[in-house]
TrEMBL record:
This is Uncharacterized protein. Residues 170-213 are annotated as: Disordered. Residues 173-185, 193-202 have a biased composition (Acidic residues). The lineage of its organism: Eukaryota, Fungi, Dikarya, Ascomycota, Pezizomycotina.
């Protein structure tokens, strides 16, 4: 992959070795800085191609996405193809496609004999023609396209255009649905619907035409790049050997370790195959049913009827079991890799001592059970200290058995703190009075807030949240997944339910695992009861400390009207995201 350094100095593809039979000059194989800049720009264009594929997938019906996900020739999968849930996964998946494209252009720039003998790559004439059309495109004669900023700004502009187009269509569809309710007669309704759909198609074509008119060279370049990717995705298998296709050849390269001295274990390699299959499905959907036509490639826009038949024509050739294609080989390798991974040696092994009182991870780490048991106690002591400082050593009466809560109430903004029978909505004002009148570290001086003291108070509250995360992780029983714990809400928010409750005198928290929902269509809900001491600290935090901190935020930042309801939040603003699992504790 090109980097900022290689775009300036060039990239050494291979070092000359004495006695080699591959080259006669004995010189290093170097990709020039200019070639690296051009390759880097092409890789940003790959992002634009995939953006367009994703836009098409978003406007595709569920039924078609079920067919897209299926690998059976005549059977539809029960669940549709879906996007990966995390942005990091999307970046990783598309990065593999970009690595493939980078390999293609690096190989194209090599001397023919070196490309065949040392790289083992033999391009077909049609592939060479497609690669050369992009590499020698007239767009590179312009000054802007040789810089990454040009392509990044072009991509941002294209995304903004598409989003504006779809938002306008969504608004129009809402207006249409309202007018349909007042329409009289089924026949009139059908006629109106046809006219409205035709108008949508015209608007879509108009948007595409505008994008092409703004920079026709760029639009044609992107179409050619898509055609190149599909040329390798639909490459014919020679002599029944899938490895004869460049995409399968590339998947084999991904099986090497970073230092190229060994092979990746199956559990690490299968993620690469899954990434290639994911991008291939998006590409084949765009190839079969594009939302906008590819004029230079002769691919027409998806028809309004007969879409399943058109998708089936492509599926039967390339994406079902039994079809001799790169996709079919990748899918078969993935299934085989998963079977092998289940019988492989685990990535790490823990070894217990003979007396069962210590556990070791190789020679790197040894933990005794005594020190392990002390960890929750140490966290509890630290949480108690921070809570006492934040409460200014005030000990309000606390009886969890008298606290009322309604686990079935999903009203927006509800929690046991807002339950009318508890009378806790304004309880934090007593803490505010304590903080302003305390002789030690008061938050108010001469009738105004002491910003330095307020910021110090916020830092202590953040430290308490970090310690509480550890206590909730370890003391509730059945350790939850990090993302499930860190997404806990303090109150019901829209369609998302809170995670902290009071039940029979105990503070409990619920985690709703969404990972299993993607495969089972069900949430996995677990209730964990906190120990009495931990529950008391959490109660004080929810009733007194957190509302007081939110009030301070509104006082210091007038533009904030309501704070985020995530327990483990990065910022005060309501759009703040919760902590990530890589948060630096």
């Amino acid at each position: 992959m090109p980097s900022s350094l290689s775009s300036v100095r060039g990239l050494v593809l291979s070092r000359a070795r004495s006695g080699t039979t591959y080259t006669t000059s004995g010189e290093d194989l170097i990709s020039s800085a200019g070639d690296e800049q051009k390759t880097a720009a092409i890789l940003v264009a790959v992002d634009m191609v995939m953006d367009r594929c994703e836009q098409t997938a978003r406007t595709t019906s569920r039924n078609l996405l079920c067919w897209l996900r299926s690998v059976r020739p005549h059977g539809c999968y029960a669940k549709p193809f879906t996007f990966v849930s995390k942005a990091a996964s999307r970046t990783k998946y598309i990065r593999l496609l970009k690595r493939f494209i980078a390999m293609v252009f690096h190989a194209f720039c090599l001397p023919t004999d070196v490309c065949r003998r040392r790289a083992g790559i033999r391009f077909k004439r049609s592939q060479i023609k497609a690669i050369a059309a992009i590499w020698n495109d007239c767009i590179w004669d312009q000054r802007g396209p040789t810089t990454l900023n040009f392509w990044k700004s072009a991509r941002a502009h294209a995304i903004a255009k598409y989003q504006a187009s779809w938002n306008e269509r969504a608004e129009n569809s809402e207006d249409i649905s309202e007018s349909d309710e007042s329409a009289n007669g089924d026949e009139d309704h059908r006629c109106d619907s046809d006219e409205e759909e035709e108008e949508e198609d015209r608007e879509e074509a108009k948007t595409a035409a505008n994008l092409s008119k703004e920079n026709p060279d760029l639009a044609e370049m992107l179409e050619r790049l898509f055609g190149l990717v599909m040329a390798f995705s639909t490459e014919e298998v020679v002599d029944g050997r899938p490895a004869s296709t460049l995409l399968v050849y590339f998947s084999g390269i991904l099986g090497f370790t970073t230092d190229s001295t060994g092979f990746l274990p199956a559990r690490s390699y299968t993620s690469n195959l899954a990434a290639l299959i994911y991008t291939q499905r998006l590409l084949f959907l765009e190839y079969a049913l594009p939302a906008r036509a590819y004029l230079s490639l002769g691919i027409t826009q998806r028809p309004r009827t007969g879409q399943v038949a058109r998708l089936q024509d492509v599926r039967q050739k390339y994406t079902v079991l039994g079809s001799q294609s790169p996709f079919e080989e990748l899918f078969s390798l993935l299934a085989y890799g998963k079977a092998i991974a289940s019988s492989e040696t685990p990535p790490f092994l823990l070894r217990w001592s003979d007396d069962g009182q210590s556990v070791s991870h190789g020679d790197l780490l040894t933990i005794s059970m005594g020190s392990f048991r002390q960890l929750p106690q140490a966290l509890l002591g630290e949480a108690s200290r921070l809570c006492a400082e934040l409460m200014y050593d005030w000990q309000p009466p606390l009886d969890l058995t008298s606290i009322k809560d309604d686990l079935t109430n999903t009203t927006h903004g509800f929690s046991f703190v807002t339950h009318p029978r508890n009378g806790l909505v304004d309880a934090y004002l007593k803490l505010s009075l304590k903080a302003c009148t305390s002789l030690s570290n008061p938050l108010s001086r001469k009738g105004s807030w002491d910003r330095k003291a307020v910021f110090a108070y916020w830092k202590k509250e953040e430290a308490l949240r970090e310690v509480l995360a550890g206590l909730l992780m370890m003391t509730g029983g059945g350790q939850p997944r990090g993302p499930d714990l860190l997404h806990i809400l303090l109150r019901n928010c829209g369609t998302a339910e809170r995670g902290l409750y009071v039940y029979n005198g105990f503070v409990i928290y619920l985690t709703r695992s969404h990972k299993a929902k993607r495969s089972t269509n069900r949430e996995f809900v677990v209730a964990r009861f906190l120990p009495i001491q931990v529950g008391h600290i959490v109660y004080k935090y929810l009733v007194y400390i957190r509302p007081f901190v939110d009030m301070l935020a509104r006082e210091q930042y007038p533009y904030i009207r309501e704070c985020s309801w995530y327990m483990f939040r990065y910022r005060f603003e309501p759009d703040s995201s919760p902590y990530c699992t890589n948060y630096h504790w």
